[in-house]
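ok so I'm stuck.
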Amino acid sequence: MFCFEDSTVEGRILSVADGPSTFNLEMRAAGFNVTSVDLRYRLDKAEILDEFEKSYAENRDYFYEHPEDFSFKTSRDIEALLAARRSTFHLFLQDFDENPTRYVFGELPKLQFADDSFDVCLCANLLFLFDDLLDIEFHLKSIYEMLRVSRRVQVFPVYGRGHLPVSCHLQAVLQKLAEIGIHHELKPSRYKVWNGESAYLTLNR
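replied:
not stuck anymore, here's the structure
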């Protein structure tokens, strides 16, 4: 999503709204210092598993009902992605049990960390993706908060669900940030599941 292989990533990394993913596990294995934050981390393993199964079923239905929204070519592609997600989830669940201090309960737009606690803050598959649920105020408060706890913020994606080429909040948010001196870059991402633009946003204070 963030093309880390093309850039230098150093220091303390915070991954917000990380969910049941193996990002923390894989980055630590590569020698990085990563803390993950998500509201699901207050749940026990059985509750997280129950949430995953519900989400898995909903996603599977949506993939098959709206194939035009995705880059899938065949049902085999869909099943391969679903299988990968299930495998990833079980790896996460094991690491969540074995390394609980790496997974912190919390949610935007308010984080519990002190100013400048991290060097990079990442947020994937939350901001700009759910325009119908999260308004501009939520986006701005969340970005201000991530910039408070880190000097650089990266957000993926910058497009909405379905056929929207770009989030309807993006330009308004970038304008507000520019007014207070926050510089941004939009960079292409090689991660592509949804049809349409695949890009991530970098913000520096």
